[in-house]
Amino acid sequence: MGGNGFSIIQDSAVVTFQALHDQASALAFALPKISSTVVTNDAAIEFRTVSKVAVGSLVAWFMLKAFKEAMANRRLARKLRAQGIPEQKLQSRWWMLGLQRYLVGHAVEPSPHLFSECRASQQLPIIHGEDVDGWGCSDAPKVYLFRLFLGIPVVVLADPKALHAMLTLKSYSFVKPTNPVKLVSNITGTMGMLMIEGDVHKRHRRIANPLFNLKALKPLVPAILASLDEFFALVDQQPASTLIPFHELSSQLTLNAIGHAAMGYNFDAFNGQGSRVTAAYRNMLQHTSLTPWTLLTLQFPGTIGKIPTLQSHRFQNAFKVVESAVKDMLQNASKHPDGHMLIHELLRQNEQDVLSEYELVCEVRSFLGAGHETTAAAISSLVLLLALHPTIQQELHDEVESTAVALEDSDALAKLPLLNKVINEMFRLYPPTFTTYREAATDVTLPMAALGAIEIPAGTRFEIPIRAIHMDPSIWGDDAAMWNPHRWDTIDLVHGTSDVSANRIVKGRRQIGPYDFMPFLAGPRACVGRQFALMELRLFLAGIVQRYTLKTDIKSMDDANLTCAITMRSTNAWVRFEQRSARA
Description:
Elements: H1 4-14, H2 18-40, H3 47-82, E1 87-88, H4 100-103, H5 119-127, E2 132-133, E3 143-147, E4 153-157, H6 160-169, E5 174-175, H7 178-188, H8 198-208, H9 214-217, H10 221-236, E6 243-245, H11 246-263, H12 276-287, H13 292-299, H14 310-334, H15 342-349, H16 357-388, H17 390-402, H18 410-413, H19 417-429, E7 436-440, E8 444-448, E9 452-456, E10 461-464, H20 466-470, H21 473-476, E11 491-493, E12 505-506, E13 509-512, H22 530-547, E14 548-551, E15 562-564, E16 568-570, E17 574-579
Parallel strand pairs: 4-10, 11-13
Antiparallel strand pairs: 1-2, 3-4, 5-7, 6-17, 7-10, 8-9, 12-13, 14-17, 15-16
Helix pairs in contact: 2-3, 10-11, 10-22, 11-16, 12-14, 14-16, 16-19, 16-22
GO molecular function: heme binding; iron ion binding; monooxygenase activity; oxidoreductase activity, acting on paired donors, with incorporation or reduction of molecular oxygen
Cofactor: heme
Organism: Allomyces macrogynus (strain ATCC 38327)
């Protein structure tokens, strides 16, 4: 998810200033009226004096509100710490006269970095009780508290017992924070399954679940392979020694695939600007870049958000194009009730009009957004990793060739051991969804392995550090930071948290629980399109290694320029696709 990740983490803190903005906005709009009265009545006090008094009053009010907010955050943090949750130490305690804990918190601490892919590895010592205040036990707490601006406490949670309660048992008591929802809803709409909560989410989930069972997915294989053939045609036009920016082409590949397989629509993403809808969709994605201005427009939609800009004008035009296209897709799909695309199945599942027209539009937009961006990040990492590990690449090619599996046979591909291990290891070390956030919707009790039952006040913010959990040596072994698909030769994925052995190793095999490996999250809010994404990745990866030898000048994934925004993905995946001799 560089700097963009900082915005996502920080934007919960921006909420603190919502009330301040509203009051300041109201006063600002009132000033012209005050000015007019003063001038027209020829009052003794000049407008400049009034303005100074108003601004001074506003500053004083702002400081008072900020002080009250900081004190409320201090009380919440003390309540959490009193129950045993340790707090990340401040490396310097005195550079702001000791007040940095309540003013800027840990936001300017050099480690863990708030907006870099190295955050995961830097979090691990703290998760295990190092560099924290208030922890004197030998066992790892798997939880710690850090603070953002005005001392807003955020609980970093890696305890599987607590995660089981948060993500599964009490999933609707912990909601997604407001600003990330606002950002993503620019693409998906406000009523897609990614955005909604509670009973509304349950209703949508009942409609969407049948779309992604294997029976419904198998007919989509030819459409996905057609997108892969388009990619092959593009690559084969290039000289064998050409470095190709696969970090860009991966998005075009998956956009075409979701268009063909889910909507029966040709985005034509490889052809320059593509279709009108493709160009509009790209403009919308650019609008979601996490700049300071974007955050301000999200946080203050009634004032700053209404300021006309060239970017907002382009976004509105693009939004209308995509909205109209999605409605046309739904209308066309309704004329073919026996169609086998996801959009046809969506309409069949909604025969009783459980979802409104707007909700259907939002779900299709969600398929489009979530269905191609995360898969693009995943296949980009997979291709680059194989180019960096030629031995694994050759093993995978040999497996695909020796089994003589046809790409059309998705069931057979799903049973190829190394293919699945390569994909799992990519998801472990480079998960597109590298972290996620929750906020307590109500006062709730959260059980923790090391601390017992913790009382969580409503509004408490949480960060679930998925990638840090995936890199934890206590879970994965001392080589957890290395990419090694063969570690999965001796791994058992177990289903219940109580089924994981304390020492992890049972009969020579490592036990990994459902909250130790979460590339698609877990519980009722887990990714509904998991099987579709895995099927796509198997088809893409098997087809690519069967046809090409992958090479790169990049020396390691450290040079891949991993950026952390809505997803974590490489922005430097330059790869050579050299046709294998058997296909020359």
